């Protein structure tokens, strides 16, 4: 369909196929099948019978087709480009070019030889290195064959000073001189006929003369002499004057214009092509190509990813840029100069820049292989037509070279390249004017255009060949695995692998909040989101602290928690720019509640609370977590090594603080058992007292009622649990009665204020004006509503403070009442008008309409965070317990010693600003999604702090049922995606993650890494792969 659209837009079939094929990636099999099917127009139209060729006579249809084509191409290019990062080339176009060149290859080689693309031939990994060497040497010789046509022959090569940088330079200079001014008469396609009649004395003798007059234009021509000089030369170092000219031309011609304005000289920015790399790959003594990938170099990763190929691709990129500059600035400016030739009587120009030949010769840069064949005799002499010979291979026919083309075969292909070049250049010299002519474009310019175009094709095909070899490795890996791996796929494998490798195994971070032998009151988990949502796995253990946990609520209140403490180590990994999102999830059961406190550990026994919230009654709380990576130890040392000693000390102190603050703490406090301790009730006594529990929490949170007013006030130990609960219930009822009385009192005060404001409004307005307004408002009331009315005072009171809705009151509300200035109904009365007047009265009396009994704000001590000196006075540090803040520093040092200092980064965890809470309005409604912004999160924190202050009697009562979860996170960073890491960097991410996992697990569990290995066979394997981490002595 796309092919048909492209052809309908007046593109040639070859152009249509090329324009279409780039939009499919080589890995997109559906795209391949579609391209193969649409090569036949009948198949394309059979795919969609309703498709018809647009009517190009109508411009709207033409634009519609073009827009449709653009949308389809953009869609296909964007959807298929995500399949691979390896290939920055068009596989289909490259495949078509190779298939076209295979016919020339078969003619150049012996009969029954069938070289094919490397992907179609079984070969070894080492053969890929040989293929890169063959292809690069072929490119070097092909480049030199083209440069020879410029004049860069063997003698020039030997004369170049290789101790200095060598440059191939193109320069242009033009000048113009005015010659003369000529008047030219140009006939116009118009004529006028005049007749003259002569009559003699004899009337029959009459003579008629006709004269035809033709119109002409008088045009002034200005003749100019233009001189054009261009040259290509080679020089070493910076001495251009000593350079050797290898190709040049001087042309003097005449141009005619119809304007006296002079002809501006051609301008071209000096552009040189560095040829140092090319000369380094050539043995100038033997004139042979000697490129070879250094496989022993530590920087060599794959046949494509190494310094040697990278330098080759830098050179091919420079060749492309140089050719583009010459073509764009020189040849196109020549075309503009020829267009200025505008004689009065124009003559057709036979040789222009637009007529320059397009390069279409054999390209020998082909990544070909061949099935195992009879070994060729390399000693057989073959005539070498190239300026540079192909270095003879000294392979012994092993598996790495058996499928490669021999040096004799490559020489045959390069000879074919030379023959095609000579044929094309000779054809140009025959068909184009000679260099000595006065034509602006001669055979020299035509040859130059052909050569720079062919150089561009050579450099492009070399880059595509290197990309093809790398893409071939990717395709083979995908074929072996069965799919293209993503980070989430590696996550699954790492979890599976760690479960078989480690003891104890990493556990999901999902913990039930419960008391022993009780049903859970909630659930706490940390989830990662990367297409799928699942719990993270961490290396966890319970810590036996030497001192209780401290949580400072204010300078005067410090909580002491005696519950369990857990340490978790989370190994995150990132590939390229892809990042997983994380969230902390807290869920409460129905009629259950707990307090969640989130912060960072300041030392081994103190949690600095950043956020807090009460989770109750089937609440589901989703808190986004932000993971921020710190620089690695190696990056830090490299960055500060050139700083002053004072600056280094400052940087080290700040980094120490960063590492210590990266310890993330989550504390969970159960409310019911602490309420029982606070109120003096036996354990489990509030389990079935749901309403009592809710009332207690309301009194503590909303009204900050002291716990002494609510707790059990008896002194006998022989009192039953029911009596104690009854006593507490009575205390709660007494306080609730006081609250209700205050509410009723406030309500009556509100009603009195409203009635007073209304009476003042009536007096100020006046009866006449009030009645007029009243009647205007009643004009729009339906007749049936005007039968009953109530006084406006009653109507206003019905709106402002409705009475309790008993059956009698509901009847009284709709009962008819006496008229007030006419028969009106309450609904016809302007409630808005009366409300506005009442509000004015409130403002005049400086009345505050807010009720006095409402939710109190937290005290100033809770709102204002304590200073560092106050914290030091109120906290108790741990002397012998685990100092959680030292773990990141220990990990940092261990990572640096392990040799993975550039990959593993300490990671801080912080909560995001926008939280989400799913909450039910009541027991029977469905949960509603609420978004909590920064201010709402702060209010929730104040509520939680108020409740904690009440539950602990301002810190004097310790909290027993609590859990502290300390999370230390590190991130193993890979620069590229999973497939690129394996194929391009030749890195096994599983082994890297294995090492980093063992480092983290060893630090979390406090044991050597070798003691964490489950199986002896795995232990032996790891001792050979990572002896330093496994504690293997150096002498063994």
Question: Helix and strand layout, with pairings?
Answer:
Elements: H1 2-8, H2 13-21, H3 29-38, H4 41-47, H5 59-81, H6 91-108, E1 116-117, H7 125-150, H8 154-159, E2 166-199, E3 206-236, E4 244-257, E5 271-274, H9 276-280, E6 282-283, E7 288-289, H10 307-339, E8 368-369, E9 389-390, H11 407-431, H12 443-481, H13 487-501, E10 507-508, E11 510-513, E12 522-529, E13 533-535, E14 537-543, E15 549-552, E16 558-561, E17 564-575, E18 581-588, E19 593-603, E20 606-616, E21 620-629, H14 633-640, H15 645-660, E22 664-670, H16 671-679, H17 690-702, H18 721-765, H19 767-778, H20 792-800, H21 807-813, H22 831-844, H23 860-863, H24 868-874, H25 887-898, E23 904-911, E24 915-919, E25 928-932, H26 934-951, E26 962-974, H27 978-983, H28 989-1005, H29 1016-1025, H30 1027-1030
Parallel strand pairs: 7-9, 17-26
Antiparallel strand pairs: 1-8, 2-3, 2-5, 3-4, 6-7, 10-14, 11-12, 12-13, 12-18, 14-17, 15-16, 18-21, 19-20, 19-22, 21-23, 21-24, 22-26, 23-26, 24-25
Structure report:
With 1036 residues, the protein is α+β, with helices and mostly antiparallel strands. The strands form five sheets. It has a 15-stranded mixed sheet that branches. A hairpin with a 6-residue loop joins β2 (166-199) and β3. The longest helix is centred in the last third of the chain and has 45 residues, at 721-765. It is elongated, with a radius of gyration of 46 Å. The two termini are 68 Å apart. Residues 10-60, 78-84 and 781-880 have low confidence and may be disordered.
